[in-house]
């Protein structure tokens, strides 16, 4: 389980900007991806880059 500070400045939020949702689940030992969605909130520009 994640034992880092909650909120937008916590370590989970910082790492979520660098890795994919399922990878973040593996890093913190979460079995449900909905737990990650609290921290994963990509910017529109990031999504646009992914779509090319």
Describe this structure in words.
- It contains three helices and no strands.
- Helices cover 42% and strands 0% of the residues.
- The chain has one domain (11-51).
- With 52 residues, it is mainly α.
- The model has no long low-confidence stretch (mean pLDDT 79).
- The relative contact order is 0.16.
Structural class: mainly alpha
Overall radius of gyration: 11 Å
Strand proportion, as a percent range, falls in under 5%
The portion of residues assigned to helices is: 40-55%
Main pleated sheet: none
Count of β-strands: 0
Query: How many distinct helices?
Result: 3
Mean pLDDT: 79
Kindly, what is the distance between the CA atoms of the first and last residues, rounded to a whole number of angstroms?
34 Å
Number of domains: 1
Q: Could you state the order of secondary-structure elements as H and E?
A: HHH
Secondary structure elements and pairings:
Layout: H1 11-16, H2 21-28, H3 44-51
Summarize the structure.
This protein has 52 residues and is mainly α. The protein is built from 3 helices and no strands. Helix content is 42%, strand content 0%.
Please tag this protein with its features:
52 residues, 3 helices, mainly alpha, globular
